[in-house]
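Data deposition worksheet. Section B asks for the primary sequence of the deposited chain exactly as it was used as input, without tags or linkers unless they were present during the calculation. Section C holds the resulting structure in token form. Section D is free text for depositor observations; keep each observation to a single sentence. Incomplete worksheets are returned to the depositor.
Section A, Depositor: J.P.
Section B:
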Amino acid sequence: MLKRVILLIIAVSVPLLLSAEKVKVRIYSATKITQAVISFDVGRYVVRDASGNIISDTLDLNRSVEVRAQGGKVWVAANAYELGTFDKISITAVDSANLFCINPTGKKQRTYEGDVYIKVLKNNSLEFVSLVDFETYIAGVVQSEIYGKPDQTDIFRVQAIISRTWALRNKNKHKADGYNFCDDVHCQAYYNRCIRPEIVYGTLQSVGEILVDKDGKPIDTPFHSNSGGQTANSEDVWSAKIPYLRSVPDTFSYRMKQSVWKKELTRNEWLNYFSKKHKLDISDSALCDELLNFRQDERKARIHNISLTKIRTDFKLKSTFFSVSANGNKVTLNGRGYGHGVGLSQEGAIRMVTLGYKYQEILMHYYKGAIIYRDMSIVDPKYQGVANDLKKIIEEDKKDNVKASANKGLEKLYSKKEREEREEVYVEEEQDNDADWDYDW
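Section C:
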């Protein structure tokens, strides 16, 4: 049992061997936090002030740090002993295997690896910035962004590649703020360290792999929940025509969780929207007939020269892929898919994996003409051994679905039950909106 725990810690640490680069990620970026307790699951930590002086050391499993915003500074206490107030502090790991937990008052706890930097913002809230190994960050993004079964490791490899590509292309997105990325949909979701071995395995399998265009530059890799059966051209949602973001038939997205949706309105609600918002003359019977009997057997960009993206935003629709029908005073929007529709359909990709398609085929289906490039210079030979060990863990977990008692002796931190409790759950209702991909092409 102890061997299993060690293997998972090695799996957590191995990205340091594969890529020396670390990234700064602002966590809890969409939440105002004024007070939190930070505890430590694995490894030892020290607290430093802005000048690098140690103000508390030997923090480990039995100790904690409390921080709160106070008068524009960070008030700090360690093990209930007040240390004072500081412009900013850092809590840094002494050991290579390390985990810290942030428990904000009134908010859900999260667990991360690496170091954390804390300061107070102008609105008197705490800012938490995690310094973490790049590939560890990517594994956490994959866990936050997509669901999948333990034996569907290719779906995690697909998500790792597109998330890594996005990160390399946008690594200076928050440079002016002092970090690389935030943890919300403005960048990529990063709601916990990765605690699922199949996701770490898929990420390790893809280390060094990104998608590039014909000139060798990382491409934009937008994705969405479900295309509804056909992806969208980039120019039909945003402004620029991108050669690798072409509309493609996508039958793989049929009969999935987010394949279809429906919204009902009154006739007046629907027609008055076009009258008041877009100044159309709804007394024109031909125009009314067009608005009340709009069909999309294939994706369109507009209805009567009005952007469907704009309509989707105003009515808070799941997608722009919908048809309109009227019956008396009732108007029904019968929609397909969830999200902006450009690039990869996550549920379509999951279906492709289920049908036996390989990760390369999935990526080439959704990003037409893109090239999978792998930088072998950052692929350490040790990674394959770690990946093989992770594969054994995945197989053991699969057996545990039949014999739950097999996990009784596991270390709690890495038990199957604990992983299930701490992982972020895929929530269909919280998927992306158009603003999440508001690119400046």
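Section D:
The chain has a mean pLDDT of 85.
The radius of gyration is 24 Å.
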